[in-house]
Write a structure and sequence with these properties.
- The chain is mainly α.
- It is 71% helix and 0% strand.
- The longest helix has 36 residues.
Length: 164
């Protein structure tokens, strides 16, 4: 059950972040403006944040994202609604929830693969110097993420030890 919950939550979170990425073709590489799609939630970042890009690179990336909008598999609202109906049902049907979660996860995998393909194309537009900056930023984010997750795990362990 815990594994199923993780799959469902991960797919829901990933679905939201990939659709937000696909919805905004300007990313943060273009001139920032006050657009609701540009507001980041905690833990969300744009791949090229902190990398100085030329106008030509920006335009090429915008074009790639515009094309990605058309190529990305759509988020199926009906699938989300089906999961919601299972969650609010009078009697919990684990097998049905599991099957629905698997179906939704497979759709999410397709979206993630397509976005990875687009990000790879964008990455390959960068100069070696820009790639180096991007790699450094990535390492910093990974270190921060490790610190945050270890802090959460310690907090959870402390809570468990005080309730026992």
């Amino acid at each position: 059950m815990r594994k199923l919950s993780k799959v469902v939550m991960a797919s829901m979170l990933a679905m939201g972040s990939s659709t937000a990425l696909a919805a905004d073709t300007t990313l943060e590489i273009a001139q920032p403006h006050a657009n609701d799609a540009m507001i980041k939630t905690p833990g969300q970042y744009h791949m090229f944040e902190g990398v100085s890009l030329t106008e030509q690179q920006r335009q090429q990336m915008r074009d790639l994202m515009r094309q990605a909008r058309h190529d990305l598999p759509d988020v199926k609202v009906a699938e989300i609604e089906a999961m919601h109906r299972l969650v609010i049902a009078d009697k919990f049907d684990e097998a049905a929830v599991y099957a629905q979660a698997e179906k939704m996860a497979q759709e999410q995998v397709k979206r993630q693969v397509e976005m990875a393909r687009i990000r790879n194309q964008m990455y390959n537009l960068l100069t070696p110097e820009q790639k180096s900056v991007l790699d450094q930023k990535h390492q910093q984010r990974m270190q921060l993420m490790e610190q945050q997750t270890s802090g959460l795990q310690q907090t959870s362990a402390q809570k468990l030890s005080t309730t026992e």
